[in-house]
Specification:
177 residues, 2 domains
Length: 177
Amino acid sequence: MTEDQKPAFVAALTELAALKPGAKLAKESYAAWWNAMRKSWTLEDFKAACEKLAREVEFMPNPFHFEQLCKQSRTTPGEAWTRALEVGRHGGRTSGDALIDKAVQAIVGYRAIGMSEIDKTHFLERRFCEHFESIQGAVEIREELPQIANAQSSQPKLNGPQRLRNALPAVGKILIS
């Protein structure tokens, strides 16, 4: 949201609070709400979420409730697995969704999914779903807090096969820190 939308944001939040028992927002509360919501929400989406939460939550919601609404709109691991299985069974190499492709790569790849026996796919599905949720959460945090992600990426990493003498300095730095 932009600064010129702040009055409409405050009005929507005030309207929501008016419907909730015992909800009274102080001036500081509006600032905290604004800081929590302005970067990741459009005004229209915020108003729509207010309407939904007004109907479905008994007491005054907080930013956590709004974020839970966002998470409900994401692709579920089961939906992602259905897509991955379809791509694998048809000999595809990509689903068109980077998260699904990364989770598939983390387990065995599309070719192995396509060649797996029907009665064994549930093992792949379980592993896929675990990886998909983990990758989805990591991507979300990296996008929202790049300063934290970049701070952690300063650690030296081993990227594939290399001569032992070239790898030892990196291993030593990892073990020391």
